[in-house]
From TrEMBL:
One GO molecular-function entry: DNA binding
Superkingdom field: Bacteria
Name by which UniProt lists this protein: MarR family transcriptional regulator
Stretches assigned to the HTH marR-type domain: 17-145
Species the sequence originates in: Aliidongia dinghuensis
GO CC, any one term: cytoplasm
A Pfam family it matches: Staph_reg_Sar_Rot
PROSITE patterns: HTH_MARR_2 (PS50995)
Keywords assigned: Cytoplasm, DNA-binding, Transcription, Transcription regulation
Any single GO BP term: response to stress
Length: 154
């Protein structure tokens, strides 16, 4: 074949490091590693910790409402809440106005656990300034919301 008549080369496919989804995924793994020593000391998983944070922020939530905040289905969240209840960090009870709903609340022990976990050090480990941290957090939340809207067809 004549070198002057070669077809143009196909554009290079993006590498793994070029994928935004991989950057978010691998950052999530890195956050998990950063949180692990702190949470291991308390005997908590990251998801259990997030449930405690969500309840600390707004106590007396229904399981379905908490699941929406945490982006978890009830069948995934319920075992997490049962374990936290066994650990003495929360209580579950049927809602008086609608017994089909279960309301979860932190116990005093659950509130103390939340207060023991200081995220300042973890935030510093990101190497971001407070403004950069806030900007990135908002951008990732917007990305998540946009993707959910697209997938759910809203």
């Amino acid at each position: 074949m004549n070198p002057k008549t070669r077809p143009p080369a196909a554009p290079a496919l993006p590498k793994l490091a070029d994928f935004l989804c991989f950057a978010v995924y691998s950052a999530n793994l890195a956050f998990g590693r950063a949180y692990k020593p702190i949470l291991d000391e308390l005997g908590l998983t990251y998801t259990q910790y997030i449930a405690i944070v969500a309840l600390w922020e707004e106590d007396e939530q229904t399981v379905s409402g908490l699941g929406q905040k945490m982006f978890l289905e009830s069948n995934t969240l319920t075992p997490i809440l049962k374990k936290l209840e066994q650990m003495g960090y929360l209580t579950r009870r049927r809602a008086q106005e609608d017994e089909r709903q279960v309301v979860v609340s932190l116990t005093d022990a659950g509130r103390r656990v939340r207060e023991r976990i200081q995220t300042d050090t973890l935030n510093e480990q990101t190497g971001l300034t407070p403004d950069e941290f806030a900007t990135l957090q908002k951008a990732v939340a917007k990305l998540r919301d946009n993707l959910l809207t697209a997938v759910e067809g809203k």
